[in-house]
Fold this sequence. Notes:
The chain has helices spanning 2-9, 32-48, 51-74, 78-94, 100-117, 122-140, 145-159, 161-164, 170-182, 188-196, 204-220. The longest helix has 24 residues, at 51-74. It has 11 helices and no strands. The chain is 73% helix and 0% strand. The N and C termini lie far apart (44 Å). It is globular, with a radius of gyration of 18 Å. With 222 residues, it is mainly alpha-helical. It folds into 2 domains: 2-140, no CATH class; 145-220, no CATH class.
Amino acid sequence: MKAMSQLVRGRPRETLGTLNPEAGDHPIVTDPRELKAAMRAGERSWQRFPYYQLRYAERGQRFTRSDSAWLASLAERGPTIACEQVTWLGRVLATRGMPRWLLESHLEVLHAELVKAVPAKANIYGALLAAAGMLRSIRHSHVSEALLRAVTIDFADQVGDEWDINCPETGALLAAAVADERAGIEMAVPSLAAWMTDPSRFPPHWIAAVGATLTWARAHAD
């Protein structure tokens, strides 16, 4: 976080490499207020979904920060470009074990943080909500909000509070992966399920719940 503080106080560079050398040289926001907002959004997403920490650890946190700063920069490019770039990123992340529902949720949080930080640019930041809405519309064509809620509750009941508290909303993650699979991302489910069913990480009843949840979600998805 020391490097982040220096970046915000001083003159920021304009690429992802500033935040995460592994992320490349795509542009990021340069307004310190927007950069701080992007970092807050990343932290909020990280806190809501402990899955990030459990699976991707510190490297994942670095990518959360850098991706958030890059996504914030898309607002200036308008809804069409924002949706195109989010479509690309969503497919990449889904094949690496992150259902696009996670990106959809993060875009909504990022929008809220940016509007709070720089209210005068609220209309510009609307491009991020448009991208989130696009992802939500695709997801809804296969998996409804009602189904997402139902599998979340059912999975928690199957694994018990002790396990559910460590990785909440796992049922929704699995159903969201099924939605991505139905939308044509072939590796969406395998990339998530392989980790979720690793016996070195999870007990038999958790693994059984993952299998049952995927079967149920696939049977009920459109």
